[in-house]
Amino acid sequence: MPDQKPGGGNTRQFTSATLEMEQELGPLRNLPGTWKAVGTGWNMIALPFKDAPAGAAPYRILMNQYDEELTFAFVDDNVPNRGVAADQRVATLDYQQQIAQQAAADFPPSAESGGPGLPIHHEPGLFIWVKDNRTDDIDVARLASIPHGNSVLALGDSETHTGMLTIAPINALPLGRFEDLSTPGYDVFDDDYLDPYEHFINDPFMGNITDSAFSGFNPRDMTEILRVANQGINIKKTTALTLDSQRAGAGVQNMPFTQKEAEPVSMKSTFWIQELDEPSCNAKHPKLRLQYAQVVMLNFFRPREDGFPGRAQWPHISICTLDKETYPE
Predict the structure, then answer these.
(1) How far is Cα 215 from Cα 217, in angstroms, rounded to an integer?
(2) Which end of the chain lies in a sparser environment, N or C, as judged by fewer CB atoms within 10 Å?
(3) Which residues have C-beta within 8 Å of that of residue 115, sequence separation ≥ 6?
(4) How far apart are CA 74 and CA 18, in angstroms?
(5) What secondary structure does DSSP assign to 246-281, as a single string?
(6) Which of 295, 324, 319, 289 has the alpha carbon at shortest distance from 226?
(7) 177 within domain boundaries
(8) Residue 143 buriedness (CB in 10 A; 0-12 / 13-18 / 19+)
(9) Interatomic CA distance for residues 126 and 152, integer angstroms
(10) Domain range spanning residue 88?
């Protein structure tokens, strides 16, 4: 049903995305379709470990190598957010993320890491482009629902650049109880409590990759794999979407158990939508590639050692490189 803007203008639309309609999606225009990763997703999470061996710290580090299918579908355009002086119009994409494990390792070892093919994540949600009347320069948003009983609203902004942006290193070590990684003599090599991190620093997770040139997935620099994957790739243009649940008005909501035990308190992610200088399977589109890095902070265990209240924060980090497989007609 159309919803005409007062005084004329665009009508609201509820149809599949076409090439022409993609222009209404701003920085999201290249997302509709299906993206796939085969063994190019990597995940690290610290988890409370009630069955930890005697004398070990009560947590374990779990590493996963994974496959991913990420599908975006056009939902609506010119959705009116009603205001007093002016209305705001947004365009919306639905997304479905499905992740299955290829390989896993944890330390201290448990019987819970699972084997190949194990479904480890499903996430439906929405991406939004704010077309006008923006607040605090926010032009993109992400709403996510996670079947552990969590919901997320992350707000952010987009930018487009020639070539590829620099992907900064991400430190995966915990915050609040320990020193920063840049501190000389960082505790990870002196404090037995951090043995799970030391284990994977000394012996990076390799997944099922046997290439001797592959340096593995390492808590010291969890985005190195993304930078290596970009070597030799001719990236003409990149649109970056940076979304953060800690921006004003955003946030994370959790079911009571996860709030009490291992509470997700923030999520920050960056998506790099890359247009490559090579043909795709669809002559109307350039070949497209997508990379992301996501950090979810989990709060568990007391006390902190830095004098602040609350619990230590444990980064849960996911990175992936995906290729686009289907395009709108």
Answers:
(1) 7
(2) N
(3) 101, 104
(4) 9
(5) TSTT-EEEE-HHHHHSSEEEEEEEEEEEEEEEEE-S
(6) 319
(7) yes
(8) middle
(9) 11
(10) 19-326
Distance CA 158, CA 137 (A): 10
1 within a domain of the structure (yes/no): no
In a domain, 210, yes or no: yes
Digit-by-digit pLDDT tens for the chain (329 residues) are 334 444 444 554 544 455 455 567 999 999 999 999 999 999 999 999 988 888 888 899 999 999 999 999 999 889 898 999 999 999 999 999 999 999 999 999 999 999 999 999 999 999 999 999 999 999 999 999 999 999 999 999 999 999 999 999 998 888 765 555 555 555 677 777 888 999 999 999 999 999 988 999 999 899 999 999 999 999 999 999 999 999 999 999 999 999 998 999 999 999 999 999 988 777 777 899 999 999 999 998 866 666 677 788 899 999 999 999 988 76
At 130, list the tokens.
Answer: 């704010």
Q: What is the CATH number of the domain that holds 108?
A: 2.40.128.20
**Beta carbons of 196 and 59 less than 8 angstroms apart:** yes
Eight-class DSSP state of 285: S
**Residue 190 neighbours by CB under 8 Å, 6+ apart:** none
Name the domain count of the chain.
1
Q: In the numeric block, which tokens belong to residue 271? A: 């998506």
Q: Which two tokens stand for residue 150?
A: 């969590």
Angstrom distance (rounded) from CA 295 to CA 200? 18
Q: Is 6 inside any structural domain? A: no
Task: Enter the pTM of the model.
Answer: 0.89
